[in-house]
Structures are given as structure tokens and as C-alpha cells.
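Hey, quick one: can you model this chain's 3D structure?
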Amino acid sequence: MSSMSSTHKTKTRTGKPEKKVDPQAITGYLLGGMVLYGGLGWLIDKWAGTSNVFAPIGVVFGLAAALFLTFRQVSVLERQEREALLRRRRALVGTEDPVVQQDRQDQNDPHDR
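Sure thing. Here's the predicted structure for all 113 residues.
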């Protein structure tokens, strides 16, 4: 059974799952969006009696929607990778997460008592 996601998980050398972008799913988003919305535009053209007005609009809208979904997924993966890199750097240096440090400072603040 395949999932409807543009990412798939693979195992790294450490055995932890890692998400990667799936190029076939991205291609499917792009083609599927253009065909679906282009087809809807064609149906609207036939219903309204116009000559190829809504079909190109549908194709462009489908392409834009597919690109939006692709960029959103890639940006989420980038953010996850950046956060993982920061966690690894902090672990190597031995520092804590800034949120944890701020919580400790707030607990030790004598003005709050």
C-alpha cells in the first residue's frame, strides 16, 4: 500500500528513519494538478459555450497548486533537517536548548517571588 505523500522514509546508518523527497510523487502532483484542473476548465468551457478560456486557466491553476504543495513539503523537510542539525551541534558542544535555558533562568529569578 502506498501513501499519498511526496516524501518517503529511509533508514540511515544509525538506524533512524529519515524523510526524503520522492521525485515521482512530485511529478504526480504536477501532472495530476494540471490534468484535473485543466479538465475542470475544459468542462466549464463546454458548459458555458466558451472557446478555450477556462481550460488554460485550469492548467495554470493546477500547476500553481502543485508547486505550492511541493514547496511547502520541501520547506518542512528543510526545517526539520535544520532543527536536527542544531540539536546535533548543541549535543556536541554540550549546550542546552535556549528554551530550557530560559525556563531555568525564569525559575531562578528572585524578582518573581
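One thing worth noting: The radius of gyration is 24 Å.
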